[in-house]
Every structure is written in structure tokens, then in C-alpha cells.
Amino acid sequence: MPHIHFVTGRLAAPSLRTVVVELAARVGFEFTIDVLPIGVAALMTPQWIARHLQLSPHATQIMLPGYCEGDLSPVEIVAGNRLVVCGPRDLRRLHEYFTGQPAPSDYGKFDIEIIAEINHCPRLSLAEVLATAEQLAADGADVIDVGCIPGAAWSGVGDCVKALRDAGHRTSIDSMNPLEIESAVRAGAELVLSVNSSNRAAARDWGCEVVAIPDTPCDLDSLATTVSYLANSGVRLRMDPVLEPIGYGFAASLRRYWEVRERFPDAKMLMGIGNLTELTDADSAAINVLLLGICEELGIRSVLTTQVVNWASSSVRECDLARRLVFQAVQHRMLPKHLEPRLVMLRDEQPLAYGEAELAQLAAELKDHNYRIFAENGKIHLVSAGLHLAHSDPFDLFQQLARQQPKNLDASHAFYLGYEMAKALTALTLSKEYRQDESLDWGLLTRLEASHRPRQSPLPPDWDGRAKQE
Predict the structure, then answer these.
(1) Which residue in 28, 67, 108 sits closest to 328, CA to CA?
(2) Are the beta carbons of 43 and 469 closer than 8 angstroms?
């Protein structure tokens, strides 16, 4: 049986022991807990740990605190042939660390193609089109769709498609105008969106694949007629019954996708999802997951998406993650849960909380006057040596602190605390987990922050825990 030697500081030791006792029985390992002479485990460095480590002779593995930074070789030298690892940054994550079910090793596969439209290309410069296409491709788009403007033929469409092709992009053309389409196809467009009875005769001469649509969304007979015409003419095609917005036949249009799949079980199909993501007052990520889930189950292997309205401005990235999530769920018959945290952006899965008693104990045991900020139970908590202030309003909390007349609150420090309190209030508002000096977790939209809290210089070689911990 493995024997894990946990390394921690004085403040975290009681909580760590409580968690590890339960885990050891559940997972099956023996353990020792090495409480080093320091209050806050996050201040440990590998060099300092190596000097103070008291290894159990039975240990087969050493687990350091997750905040331990730098080269672990000083500890590895002391450890000999024992494995040295850093655990999670929060000991409350140890359950997840030891028992969490990781994503299957083959996670990430997909079979849905993303066609990303650049809307109103005639109104953009060629440089703008190319820059947008580069970003869409980086976000996961497989095909760049050149969006034209109905009612007028764009003379520059061929040059645009050629430039995109020369830049290495697969391209499609979004137009019903045969003149625009012919120019785009000659320049290298591989797919035409879209064809119905108004332009299907010209499709015989294009020599590329087309998307067949009904003359009106609810008229599946017209779609069947166009499909028959194109097939008899030797034109490669995929079918799109047209997704309609909520209030304009959304549920009925979903039913039509089902009906088309039943009538044409082997046909290639496409779903244009922008009518829902762009035309619904809701963040697009969950909508994209739902629609791609429908596509995966119905065998619809391509989607057309746009990124015009701001709440859908990351749709391509969302679709790229969503197609992997739904593929895993459908192909392996497993719930699409705990597999793709980057799609959980607004709220966190389960914010962790210390509780009032533990924060009060922390304030009582701290020896330094550096400020720790916590956000839980509807309040922002400010903790330092002998100090525990809390309030739901960061302005009121700061006034409480000012009344203490602290000597370490210069302008720079006040700015830092204000910034962190604002983050903490955002976390409380959205039920997100707040960790001081770290980014809030916004899933795929997370913007990593550089640390702005000065980290203390390495502890002196002869430090024995009697000096201040920070």
C-alpha cells in the first residue's frame, strides 16, 4: 500500500488531517503529515522545505503544497527514490485530486465541421477579411464562408476568395446570386450556400458541392424537389431544412431536421445555427452546445455559425469545444458533464467556502499584517493578524479597515485591495470561486492575470519559525 507523506504549515495542518483521514480510508493509502515550522504553507520554497523535511521511513511519495513554486530538485535530492509531487493549491480539492474521474484518454475527437461566416464581406477591406479569417481558423473554423449582401452582385468576390485560398483557408460562398457564385467558384470556393428552385439550374455548371434549402422554411416538398434535381444533375449536395428563430417556428424547424433525416437517412446535412445564437437574448455558449448535441444525434455533420452580435462573439470557439463534448457524450453514451469546464463560464460548478469559524481562527493565528481576502456567504472577508472584517459592500469594508488606522495601507496597497475586492464582489454576485491574486475562472474566456502581490524574498537559511511568517 502506498504511503504518502503530506507536507504543510501550521495553519492548514488540522484541516489537512481531517481531509486525509477520510481519503486514506476511501482511496486506500497510508500517510504521515509533516507540519513544518511556518504558518502559511504558500510561503514555502523547495529549498526551505528540503532543509526542514522530516521524512517518514515508510513514505513512498511526498506531496508538497500546491503553491510550492520553482525547481523541486532540492526536495527530490532529500527524497531519494521517492516520488515528489505538488498537490492542489487548495487542500479542499484533495478529494477531486484523488477520486475525480478524468476525461477519457480519447477525449477531443469530433466529426462536425465548423463553417464560420464573415458577414458583409463587400463592406470590408481585403486586409480585414484576411485578418478575421485567420482568427476564425485559430478559434477552430474549418471553412471560411464569404458572406455577400443580397440584392447586389459583388465584383470583388473572386479576388476575396482567391486571397483566402492563397492564405491557406478552405472557403465557401454565401450567396444566391449565380454571378457571384460563379466568380467565387472559379477562384476556389468549394461549397455554395445556398441553392433552391431559384438558382438550382445554374448549379450544374459550378462543379462544386452546394447546400440545398427549401424555397420557404416550412416547405419540405420544395427541398425534396431541389434535392432530386441536383442529384439527377450529378451535383454534390448537403441539405439544410433551415433553423428558424424562437417565435417564428423554432420547434417546428427542429422537427423538420428530424423528418429530413428520416426521409434521407444517408444524406449529408448542415444546420445554420446563427438564427438562434444571434437572434436570442442569451449567452451563446449553452445554445451552441445544445444545437451541436442535436446535430451529433441526428448525424448533421456541419454547422454554419456567425459572430456578429457581441453575446455570440466567441461562437466559433464555443462550437469547437461543444463538438468535442457532444461527440464524447453520444459516441460513448455518457453524460456531457465534468468533461469540458471551458464551456462553464458564467458560474463556477461549486464554489468552496472556509466558513466563519475557520476564518476567525486564521485571524487569531496569523502573526503578520498582510491582508487575506475571501469571498463567501454573501460577504467579502478581510483577514490579517488579529483582524477579521466582513461586509457585502467593498466600500463599507474598506471604511472598516480605515477606522483601524493600519500603518501598512499606502496608496499602492489600497489600490491593490480595491481591485481584489472588486473581483471578490463579482465572484459573490455570480456564485464564482474567488482566490486572491488569481484570475476568476471564466472558462474559455479566462484572462490570466500576473501576480501583483509582492512575494516575499526567500526565507533565510537559519529561519526557524520564530520570525514573522511573511
Answers:
(1) 108
(2) yes
Write the Ramachandran bin of 208: left for phi over 0, alpha for psi from -120 to 50, otherwise beta: beta
431 phi and psi angles, rounded to 5 deg: 55, 50
Query: Which triple of cell numbers denotes residue 99?
Result: 477520486
**Residue position matching grid coordinates 445556398:** 194
- Backbone φ, ψ for residue 225 (5° rounding): -65, -45
Residue 56 grid cell:
517518514
H or E element that contains 362: helix 356-365
8 A C-beta contact, residue 305 and residue 319: yes
pLDDT in tens, 303-318: 999 999 999 999 999 9
**Bridge partner residues of 147 (DSSP):** 174
**pLDDT tens by residue, 10-37:** 878 888 888 899 889 888 999 999 999 8
State how far the Cα of 315 lies from the Cα of 309, in Å rounded to an integer.
10
First to last CA, the chain: 38
Q: How many CB atoms lie within 10 A of CB 339?
A: 19
> In this structure, are residues 276 and 287 in contact, taking their beta carbons and an 8 Å threshold?
yes
- Residue labelled with grid coordinates 451541436: 292
Query: What span, in angstroms and rounded, lies between the C-alpha atoms of 105 and 16?
Result: 31
Q: 199: how many CB neighbours lie within 10 A of its CB?
A: 18
State how far the Cα of 181 lies from the Cα of 158, in Å rounded to an integer: 9
Residue 454 is classified by DSSP as P
Give me the count of residues in the chain: 470
- The rounded distance, in Å, linking the Cα atoms of 432 and 423 is 10
The torsion defined by the Cα of 333, 335, 337 and 343, in degrees rounded to 10, comes to 70
pTM of the model: 0.81
Q: Residue 63 contacts by C-beta under 8 Å, 6 or more apart in sequence?
A: 4, 5, 6, 7, 85, 86, 87
Nearest to 443 by CA among 349, 353, 330: 349
Find the helix or strand (DSSP H, E) in which 356 lies. helix 356-365
Compute and round to an integer the Cα radius of gyration of the chain. 30
- Give every CB contact of residue 448 below 8 A, 6+ residues apart in sequence: 439
Over residues 33-86, the pLDDT tens digits come to 999 988 777 777 888 899 999 999 999 999 998 888 778 999 999 999 999 999
Q: Which of 145, 118, 112, 133 is nearest to 322 (CA)?
A: 112
What CA–CA distance (Å, rounded) separates 69 from 86?
Answer: 9
Residue that wins the pLDDT comparison between 360 and 110: 110
**Average pLDDT rounded to a whole number, residues 374-379:** 94
C-alpha atoms less than 13 angstroms from C-alpha of 455 in its C-beta half-sphere: 14
Q: Which ranges of 245-337 does DSSP label H, i.e. alpha helix?
A: 250-263, 274-277, 284-298, 315-332
